[in-house]
Write a structure and sequence with these properties.
With 493 residues, the protein is an all-alpha fold. Helices cover 69% and strands 0% of the residues. It is built from 18 helices and no strands. The longest helix is centred in the middle third of the chain and has 84 residues, at 131-214. Essential for the control of the cell cycle at the G2/M (mitosis) transition. One of its GO terms (biological process) is mitotic cell cycle phase transition. Residues 274-358, 371-455 form the Cyclin-like domain.
């Protein structure tokens, strides 16, 4: 009975798995009933219940084993069908399988096993399919997705490579174009500038060579090098002292004051100056005393109107003040009264002295032409006594000439006197780099004042005011007044 049931189960499993399970169940139940009857009929074995249980489990094991073998066979068949290229056969097998399954169980619904991938619209997933075939379709779809993803990745890599190559190509294009433009600019512009520079270089070198032949370049000499051990020369402070003189010389300059003098004119002033030069020489006073005297006279006359009869009194009172300021042994008041032929008394001289000091506010420390003359004569190397006398001769002529005193400052008058003296004595070059450095004037700046001094020198022998001319015509002053004036103004150029 048991053997027959097992054989039936084996045959039915091959034909239809669902029907086989039902038949097997019925067979097992029948066999179980039969076994129970036989057990009851037989001698009442004690192990009847145990036999029933063993036969039941063995029957169930055979059913499940046959079902597992059928599943494996179906997998092999479906794999072979998937490898075949004929789509018609695949559809027929699908219909057969679906038809067989439809008779015994419900159609599978959507349980999450439907494949719906983007880009694969051609796959029909609306119908239920077998597990193995569905797995095959899913594998194919994944392969296609992998291919498409690899293609996308390859396209992205290619795009990245192109994007990485573009910056390399673009700078090359830009550099090439810029090089072309710069080369064109260089072709158009650089040769012109080089030619212009060559021309300028030739012209400048020719000018330098021409000038070097005419006037060689001279270094600036240190005129205070020999006075380093002389404490009275104040070599350490001399440059600062003269810089201060140049900055304050305008305080001692006078403006044209003849318009404010009703009884005095420029000619009367010249007569007074000529007489004061004679008095200065007679008293044998210092040169700086004479220049300070004339400065005091001009500044006082520019501040107060003076009658004609008091003009000489202003002169002797001014010289008295200058002598007290500059001299070690100043002349007495009676000496000035006597030199004026007793035209005034001592009280008048002292009263005028007080009046002048009040008007000038006791301001007597002013840079006169003399302080600049001393410095510029020292800078006129080589310096000698003849040059020194010639410079003082021209400077005193300038002090007698009212327009020169009014128009030009003391430092310019002194520098012009040095220039004209060098021209008159033929000291070449007429104006050196050393003189330009210490005076602060160029030859062109001194031209106008120098012409005036040359004219004064030329007219001095015929002038009625001959005090200066006589003074410097003597042998004590090297007779510099007798030298021919530098009429040729081209020598000053």
């Amino acid at each position: 009975m048991r053997v027959t049931a097992r054989r039936l189960v084996a045959v039915d499993v091959r034909e239809n798995p669902t029907q086989t399970r039902e038949v097997a169940t019925e067979t097992v139940l029948e066999s179980a009933v039969a076994t129970t009857d036989e057990g009851a009929e037989e001698e009442g074995r004690n192990g009847g219940l145990q036999g029933f249980l063993s036969s039941l489990f063995s029957t169930l094991g055979g059913v499940f084993s046959s079902t597992f073998q059928e599943t494996q066979q179906n997998n092999v068949v479906m794999a072979s069908i998937a490898e075949q290229p004929n789509k018609g056969e695949i559809r027929e097998n699908k219909q057969k399988n679906m038809g067989g399954e439809g008779r015994n169980r419900r159609v599978l619904q959507d349980i999450g096993n439907l494949v719906a991938k983007q880009g694969h619209v051609g796959i029909n997933v609306s119908k239920p399919v077998a597990r193995n075939f569905r797995a095959q379709l899913l594998a194919n779809a994944q392969d296609k997705n992998k291919k498409s993803s690899t293609e996308v990745e390859n396209a992205a890599v290619v795009a990245k490579v192109k994007a990485a190559e573009k910056p390399k190509e673009e700078p090359e294009v830009i550099v090439i174009s810029s090089d072309d433009e710069t080369e064109e600019k260089k072709k158009q512009y650089v040769p012109k500038t080089n030619k212009a520079r060559d021309k300028n270089a030739k012209a400048f070198s020719s000018v330098l060579s021409a000038r070097s032949k005419v006037v060689p370049l001279e270094p600036v000499l240190n005129i205070d090098a020999t006075d380093t051990d002389n404490e009275l020369a104040a070599a350490d402070y001399i440059d600062d002292i003269y810089e201060f003189y140049k900055s304050t010389e305008k305080d001692g300059c006078v403006h044209d004051y003849m318009g404010s003098q009703p009884d005095i004119n420029a000619k009367m002033r010249s007569i007074l100056v000529d007489w004061l030069i004679e008095v200065h020489r007679k008293f044998e006073l210092m040169p700086e005393t004479l220049y300070l005297t004339l400065n005091i006279v001009d500044r006082f006359l520019s501040m107060k109107a003076v009658p004609r009869r008091e003009l000489q009194l202003v002169g002797i009172s001014s010289m008295l003040l200058a002598s007290k300021y500059e001299e070690i042994w100043a002349p007495e008041v009676n000496d000035f009264v006597c030199i004026s032929d007793n035209a005034y008394v001592s009280e008048q001289v002292l009263l005028m002295e007080k009046t002048i000091l009040r008007k000038l506010e006791w301001y007597l420390t002013v840079p006169t032409p003399y302080v600049f003359l001393v410095r510029y004569i020292k800078a006129s190397t080589p310096s000698d006594k003849e040059t020194e006398y010639m410079v003082f001769f021209l400077a005193e002529l300038a002090m007698m000439h009212y327009p020169t005193v009014v128009l030009h400052c003391p430092s310019l008058i002194a520098a012009s006197a040095v220039l004209v003296a060098r021209c008159t004595l033929q000291r070449t070059p007429f104006w050196t780099s050393t003189l330009k450095h210490y005076t602060g004037y160029s030859e062109e700046q001194l031209r106008d004042c120098a012409k005036i001094l040359v004219n004064l020198h030329a007219t001095a022998p015929e002038s009625k005011l001959r005090a200066v001319y006589k003074k410097y015509s003597s042998s004590d002053c090297s007779s510099v007044a007798l030298r021919l004036p530098a009429k040729n103004l081209t020598e000053l150029s």
